[in-house]
Amino acid sequence: MKKINFSAGPSILPQEVFEQASQAVLDFNGTGLSLLEISHRSKEFGEVLDEAHELVRELLHLPEGYHPIFLTGGASSQFFMLAMNLLARGSSAAYVDTGTWSSKSIKEARRFGIIDVVASSASEGYTFIPTDYTWRGELSYRYMHITSNNTIYGTQYHKWPEVDMPLVVDMSSDIFSRPLDDAIDKMGLIYAGAQKNMGPAGVTLVIVREDMLRHREGELPTMLDYRTHIAKKSAYNTPPVFPIYVSMLTMRWVKAQGGLEAMEKRNSAKAKVLYDVIDNSNLFKGVARKKDRSLMNVTFTLKDKELEKPFLDFCTENNCVGIKGHRSVGGFRASIYNAMSLEGVQLLAELMRDFERRV
């Protein structure tokens, strides 16, 4: 029996995407060549890149002036790369600290400018999204950086900050999970590692608004300059061919499901199933505050820690895997990204109820 994978990433993708990608590895679109051996300069792969760029624009309803590019290095490379590209000498940016990944982005950005942490939920274990900002009046901020969904702690922005500066948003774990129509104009840059909601590990999507690049001073290494990749349409050097192709297939699938509006309804319904079990349980307890709960990563603990291993074993025996919490916080985490079915979530919910009845 196929296992139901609740891993935080690399995560599951739609079954039809797995099948299409597998066929392309053997014979890409009838070329007689594997996708893994075709030239990245070929007409065939050029069409893949064009469609991938266009699907990003279409799904997110990007206005003119926004440029999607596909890069390597993971989202972690963007922690420093975005600061290099957006901050001029001596300029400043506001950062909100909501967990491990935002903390790492703050550390890297401090190498290139004055970084002011204007809000943090660290003192309470990152269990909520802070909204009380403390500003330094002498600073003129270029942007505010936030992490839209925090995979480790299970929190998510459900309302975007109302600030008078562009938002720079790490969307690695909730890209393409909900519409951004009411917020896209607020965003100067979006970035996301593919391996949670878009594709396999190995490619990172960056969407940059062109006016964000006007204030940088001095020269950057060619490969670290966003303008290089915008000008060459993500193909300045050999791009990650296979991850881009699989990401394109996944975006096709999202479009076929009804786009981001349909994804949001689907994800809300799945999350409700699990949160209902947690909220009505005498055994399980949610980690994140209710108003900031993630629709992507449901985090919870057992009130009796002695039951953690038996519960994990029980789930594994019943083909639900990947629910162990991040090593830094423990507990449990069910990641229910776009490709996770409602049926898979319902099975986990029933296992939770069944385990509680047994103990």
Question: What is the helix fraction of residues, given as a range?
Answer: 25-40%
Please outline the major beta sheet.
7 strands, mixed
- Beta percentage is 15-25%
- Can you list the strand order of the major beta sheet? 2-10-9-8-5-3-4
Shape: globular
CATH fold label of the largest domain: Aspartate Aminotransferase, domain 2
What is the chains' assembly state? Answer: single chain
| N/C terminus separation | 27 Å
The CATH architecture category of the largest domain equals: 3-Layer(aba) Sandwich
Structural class: alpha/beta
Full CATH superfamily name of the largest domain: Type I PLP-dependent aspartate aminotransferase-like (Major domain)
Domain unit count? 2
> What radius of gyration results from the CA coordinates?
21 Å
Q: What is the overall number of helices?
A: 9
For the record, the CATH class of the largest domain is Alpha Beta
Summed over residues and divided by their number, the pLDDT gives a mean of 96
Series of H and E elements: EHHEHEHEEEEEEEHHHEEHEEH
Q: Report the uncertain regions.
A: none
